[in-house]
Every structure is written in C-alpha cells, then in structure tokens.
Predict the 3D structure of the following.
Amino acid sequence: VQLVKSGGGLVQAGGSLRLSCAASGFTFDDYTIGWFRQAPGKEREGVSCISSRNGRTYSADAVKGRFTISSDTAKNTVYLQMNSLKPEDTAVYYCAAVPLYFSRCGMATMGRYYEYEYWGQGTQVTVSS
C-alpha cells in the first residue's frame, strides 16, 4: 500500500499550490482520503477529506472557500488545490486513508487523524508574507 504525494513548496501569500496524492495497493473507492497538516509546535489538524464512492467532501473552516479537494478515480489520485494561501497555512501536509466503512468524510473524521490507516510522506508548504 502506498500513498505518494507530490506538490508543495514555497509560495508568496495570495498564491496557489496543488498537492497530489496517488494511491496504490488498495481499492480507492473503499476509502476516505484525508489531508492533514502540522505546523511546528502545533498538533496535526485535519484540512479536507473526500469519499470518492459517494462524492462527499469536507473542508475545515480555516480553509473553506480557499482549498478544494477533488479526486480522479481513474488515476486513484486525490488533489488539494490551495488558493489564496496565507502564512498561517505553512505546515507539513500529509495525505492519509481510512476505510470508508470505518470513517466517512466529515468533520468528525478530520478530528481523528489517529484512525487513518495509511499515510503518505509529508510535504512542506511554506507561505511567505
């Protein structure tokens, strides 16, 4: 099982980045895929999630209206489009997967990162002011 991330980097405030998370080794539609982030000295927080089987998505209030999560089931890939980036978005971003039968995409699952079974490598996103 693998979750391979790409994207990230350094951008000025107001700019955009897109993160990708390509999944392999499990049935994509049977999982909720979540994006999490962790800034230095802070706890890991949920950003957005998607359940491709039913198209359900959720984004945390901190990113709502700026970040968009989507999926391409043919490519088993989830994307996080991040627009209007702010310095407070600076963090290491992770994608992770949890079985859909166990945790559906929503506010509750975003608060329970410890339930996620598979994790991709973190990628740094730095937003300069």
